[in-house]
Write a structure and sequence with these properties.
8-stranded mixed beta sheet, BirA Bifunctional Protein, domain 2, 3 domains, 4-stranded mixed beta sheet, alpha/beta, 15 helices
Length: 414
């Protein structure tokens, strides 16, 4: 039986033009984050299975790929009560859990306030669909060790600067606080922690199932009045800074913190959204997402998770993170034009001396930052179109009598 030659389901190969665009986007993001004082780190693609399933990853733990232990025997298979009994490692499903482990391991070697960049692939056993993959790149920045709002300010400034550098305009930051969400649930009579956790999972589905769907699910799971809950949720969907100020259910201290954050970020379109949840259960305070009016999905998000690192270190460390949705961003960005900086040397036929071609290429590299040799084809139109898609800006034709590029015309591929 013939084996398949396609990439594994939910994963992708990247052709040269796509890879070039991805590297361009990554380069821009890395450059902006470095300018803002963040240092890049790298962690292993696998973590201990027990760490990945310690309750820190929320529903993502259910999507983790497990790595089976070496040397398993049939007896091990018989004695296992669950599949995870056979695994000692797993592929990371995000970059936050590895960062917490990294910080706990290297704290003595790091500054008291550590600003980290992680840009790397992660893996989740998602059901593949448009825009949702089993392997994808995350772009995370985190500030560890800073309890005050300076951390949120730096993260939001760096993130919006990265979006601006990529040419993505018109974005806004939806912002909320977990304390406000818990106060809202308490006003509904939901005060027990496990019940509140279930309720937040339901409210987080608002974009998918609407106010009525959320209210009905809350009625089924927690006994809330669906009609009254739906009315409240509809009102909250259109709420803003002014309309909720002074509300009986509002956590006034958390809201005041958000208003101070807003005042500290002039020029950033910061929009209060009391229905914003962010699905990860480890968030403890501020939460935020990047929104754009042209897209029905967020371009990134994050929040404060002050309790996570303490699970590894034995003492709590304040922490806030912001992750850009790289796979979504890369589809919105085009490679910059490079008509004068890129050139491709086209060969007339196979009779051109390869030593001379190498010399011409070396000469072209003196004045152009990227040079490729291409053999002339019968269908030049398709060849040139393909080169333009790959980011080449101009080309020249050379023949058996070309000894130098002096006087050779470079023509635009645009």
């Amino acid at each position: 039986m013939a084996t398949t030659v396609t990439a594994p389901r939910g994963m992708r190969d990247h052709l040269p033009a796509d890879k070039a665009r991805r590297e361009h986007v990554l380069g821009v993001i890395r450059g902006v984050y470095a300018r803002h004082g963040f240092d890049e780190i790298e962690t292993p693609v696998v973590e201990d299975a027990a760490r990945l399933h310690s309750g820190l990853g929320g529903d993502n733990e259910k999507l983790a790929f497990a790595v089976m232990r070496r040397g398993l025997t049939t007896e091990d298979l018989r004695q296992a009560d669950a599949p995870l009994d056979l695994a000692d490692l797993g592929l990371r499903f995000d970059l936050t859990v590895p960062l917490a482990r990294f910080y706990a391991s290297h704290r003595a070697e790091l500054p008291s306030v550590f600003r980290a960049v992680q840009i790397a692939p992660v893996w989740r056993a998602e059901r593949p669909q448009k825009g949702r993959y089993r392997q994808f790149v995350q772009c995370d920045i985190d500030v560890l060790g800073e309890p005050g709002q300076l951390a949120e300010i730096e993260l939001i400034r760096a993130t919006t600067a990265a979006l601006d550098a990529l040419g993505i305009v018109g974005t806004s930051i939806r912002i909320n606080d977990r304390r406000i969400l818990l106060a809202l649930l308490a006003s509904w009579g939901v005060t027990e922690q496990s019940a509140a956790d279930r309720a937040l999972i339901t409210v987080d589905k608002l974009d998918k199932i609407g106010a009525v769907g959320v209210a009905e699910e809350l009625g089924t799971t927690l006994g809330l009045d669906p009609a009254a809950t739906a009315d409240t949720i509809r009102a909250l969907e259109s709420a803003d800074w002014d309309s909720v100020r002074g509300a009986d259910w509002l956590d006034a201290e958390a809201f005041a913190d958000l208003e101070r954050l807003r005042a500290a970020l002039p020029g950033v379109d910061l929009r209060f959204d009391p229905t914003l949840v962010r699905g990860m259960g480890y968030y403890t305070g501020t939460i935020f997402e990047v929104a754009h009016p042209d897209f029905g999905y967020s371009l990134g998000g994050g929040g404060r998770y002050d309790g996570m690192i303490g699970r590894f270190l034995g003492q709590d460390v304040p922490a806030v993170g912001f992750s850009l949705g790289f796979e979504r961003l890369v589809d919105l960005v085009s490679l910059p034009g490079s008509a004068e900086s890129d050139a491709v040397v086209l060969v007339y036929d196979k009779d051109v001396d390869p030593v001379r071609l190498a010399a011409l290429k070396a000469e072209a590299l003196d004045t152009h930052h990227r040079v490729r040799l291409e053999k002339r084809t019968k269908n030049m139109k398709n060849l040139l179109a393909g080169l333009a898609e790959q980011g080449f800006g101009s080309f020249a034709t050379v023949g058996t009598d070309t000894t130098s590029l002096d006087g050779v015309e470079f023509r635009s591929l645009a």
